[in-house]
Amino acid sequence: MRNTPEDLKRLVRTPRMESPQVSPDALWVAWTWSGTGETGEVFAAPTSGEGAPFRLGSAGLAARAVSWSPDSRSVLVEREDDSDERAWLCRVDLDRPAEFVPLTRVRPPYFVRGGSLHPDGRTLVYGANVDLASGSAIEPTCVIRRDVVSQEETELARPKRGGENVPMLSPMGDHVVYFRSDRHPAGVQVWLVGIDGTNDDEIINVGNDLKAQASWFPDGTRLLILAETETRTHRRLGVWDVQARTLEWLVDDPAVNIERAHVPRGSDQIVAWVAQGARTCSALVETRTGRITEVPSGNEELLLLAPFSDNMWIAQLNSTDTPSDLVRVAIPHAEANTRQSIARVVDRLNGARKLLHRAESVHWTSVDGLEIQGWLYRPDGPSCGTIVSIHGGPTWHRGNEFDLESQAFRAAGFAVLVPNYRGSTGFSLRYQEAIRVTGWGGLEQEDIRTGIEMLLKHGIAQPGRVGMTGLSYGGYSTWHAVTHFPREMVAAGVPICGMTDLVMDYERTRPDLRPLTARMMGGTPAEQPELYEERSPIHLVDRIEARLLIVQGRQDPNVPPDHVHAIVPRLDEAGVDYEILWLEDEGHGVAKPENLELVLSRMIDFFAKALSGQECGEGACK
Questions:
Q1: Model-level pTM?
Q2: Coil, helix or strand for 172?
Q3: Domains in the chain: how many in total?
C-alpha cells in the first residue's frame, strides 16, 4: 500500500535536527529542529535526561542555535523572517524561554556568520559582510565587535576577499580566531586578532591553496588545528600554542580521514569525527601522544559532543531509518543498552515510524575507474519508477543519516538512489578535491550517470522510468542531466533552486559566497570564460527531452530567481514542456512544513505521471 496524504503529512512533521550545542557546564544541550513547527525552532533539554525538551523562544520566525553564553544560562540564536538568509543574532535565556533579545541589527541587508558572547556578558563577536561606515554589504566577511548595551560596533579585521569566515572568541575573551582566503580562492589561512583589534596576524598557513581550520581549547591558551596536507590526501591534526606560537602535529595519517574535530569542556581529549565510506564515527585523541581510540557505533553514527561525567558522553545519534536523536552514552563501549535519549525524538514521530526504512549502501565504478558510493532505498512493492536525488554543496555528503525526501519518495512507491559523487565529503580529502580537476559539470556528473547505468543493469530501474531531482548544486546537476542525458536515462527532472547559468551564479549570488564558484571552476568568468559557458545548462536547452518541473524560492539570495527568469525564454523558444512551482515565502530550499508538503506532493504526482503514465496510489504503479 502506498502512502496517503496523511502519511506524507506525518513524514513532513518528523523532527530533523541540526547544530546541537552542549552548554559550557555540560548540564544543557540546545539544538535546532525543523518539522516541529511552522519554521525552524530552537529547543533545549537537560543532559541528565530527566526533563523533556522545551522550546526556546516564541514560534513564528525561523531560528537556529549558534552558541551558548559563557555562564550556560543563555543560547545565542540566529533569526530570520523572509527566508532570505539575512539573519540577526538574539539571546534567549533558559529562565525566560519565550523571549528573544536582539543582539545585532534586526533584518540586516547583509549576512551574519557565527556569534560568541564575551565572559563580561555584553561584548559580542561575530562575522558579517558589511562595511560599518556605510552599512552596505561587501564581499569579505569582517570580524565585528559589538557592545550589546551601547550598540557600538567596531571592525576588528577585514579579509581582502570573501569566504566562509566564522570568527570565534577565545574562552578568556582576549583573542579572536578567524579565517581568510586572501592568498588563493582554494586556500584558507588562520588569523588571530586581539579583542581590541591589535596584533592582527596570520598564524597558520599550510599552503596558499590549502585549507586550515582552527578551534579553541577550553583553556583559551591553545588552538586545535585541522589542516590539509600538500599531497591533498588527508588532513593533519595539531595543537598551536598561543603564547609560544608553536605548532605540534599529533595525527598525520592518510588512513585517518578526520573531517571535524573539537575539544569539549571537561575533557582532556580531542574529539575527532572520522569519515569512511559516507559513514562518520567518533574517535578520541590524546592531546599529549596523539593516540587514537575509536568509539564503536555499529550500523549507526554516534557523534560525540561533550562529556557528561567520567565515562558518560552526550552524543548525536544518526541512522538512515530514524531522525537524529541526542543521547547519553557510556564510553568506550557505547552499546545500545547504555544509551539514554535526551531529545526523545521517538516520542515525536506521530505515526511516521512505520513509514521509515533503512537504506542500503551501494557502489559502482565511474568512467575513470573511481569507485562511487550511494544510498539505495527500495519500495515495498512494485516500483513507480526510480528517482535519483542529488545532494547539494557540492562539498557535502549524504551520510548514514535520516533523509526525509528519500523516505517520502520510497513510501510513495519509488526506488531512490542518492549518489555521493566525487567532490563529496565523507570519503577522503583526495576524493573531495577530485571535483576540481575538471570543475563543475565535469566528471562528477559522469559519476551520477554511471550510477543510473548501474541501476538499469541490475533491473532496479527501467529505461524511460528514471527521474532526477536535487537542491542547489543538486538542482544544477538535474539541469545538467536533462541537457546531457537521453530520455531513456532521465525522463523527468525537478531542479530545486538550481543554477542554470554559472556566470550569473558568480555575479548574482551572495557576495560572500562568490569565491566558491571561482575555486571550483579554476578562476572567475573573466579568467575561464569558455569553461563557464560550456558548463552552463542555459546554453543547451534545445537538447532537453525530459519533462521538467522547476521549483524556485522567490527570496533565494544564494541561487536567485534570475536563473529561472533567464532560462524560461530559452525553454519556450526550444518548445520544451515545463512547469514552474514558485514558492513566494521561501529562500534557498524549502523550510516551512506546509510548503515542503506541497512540494513533495507535487513532485510525487509529477514523477508518477512522467515515469509511469498514471497517478501513483494504492493499486497503481504496477
A1: 0.93
A2: coil
A3: 1
